[in-house]
Write a structure and sequence with these properties.
Elements: H1 3-21, H2 47-70, H3 76-87
């Protein structure tokens, strides 16, 4: 995997994982809801912690995907060739 494609894959994985991590540990501010605040807004969203967790998970997933691609465990070119032959 090249540098640009590696960065693109990392960004796509990171955004996918952040949307899975965001709901973790969300507790609404039930007792101290101030006027003008959304009722379901989290009391303490802990965004830096979620960003770090997301980055750690993404690094692990990216390394696994990179190994699968560079070691030709799963080759998109071979898959495309066999699919093209099956269509003919």
């Amino acid at each position: 995997m090249g540098l640009v494609s590696g960065i693109v894959v990392f960004v796509i994985i990171w955004w996918t994982v952040i949307f899975m991590v965001l709901p973790w540990g969300v507790r609404p501010e039930v007792d101290e809801a101030q006027p003008g605040h959304q009722v379901g807004a989290p009391a303490n969203p802990r965004m830096w912690r979620k960003v770090l967790i997301t980055t750690a998970i993404t690094i692990v997933l990216w390394v696994v995907i990179d190994i699968l691609i560079t070691e030709n465990v799963f080759s998109f070119r071979d898959w495309a060739e066999s699919w093209t032959r099956a269509q003919q």
